[in-house]
User: Fold this.
Amino acid sequence: MIPRLVTGAGYWSPLLWLAFLILFTLIGYLIYSRGNPRYRKDTEQVKPYLSGNVEPSKEKIQVKAGDIYWGLVEALKDYYNVLQAIHTGDLRDYILWYLGVGTIILFLLVGGA
Assistant:
């Protein structure tokens, strides 16, 4: 006899769990074996049904990330045009802007009082 692990919440019997595993594997195999035997991958069967219409290309129906913010970007178009004009992509420029703006803020907080 295999000992059982008894805890306050129940018990653990490895043979019982193995029996359940085998039982559910058999049930899963029976369900799988009753599937349609005429199904073939890489045929017309896997294409979506679009009421007889030709499936459009993925590029035509894809929603791009830029489309999500279209309204916001269009409303702030003038602001973004200015930002794009001063955007260089050089990290040294960003550090220079950071130090410049930080100096102005520090001057206003300390020197303005």
Observations:
- The two ends are 86 Å apart (CA to CA).
- The mean pLDDT is 87.
- Strands lie at 5-7, 10-12.
- The longest strand covers residues 5-7.
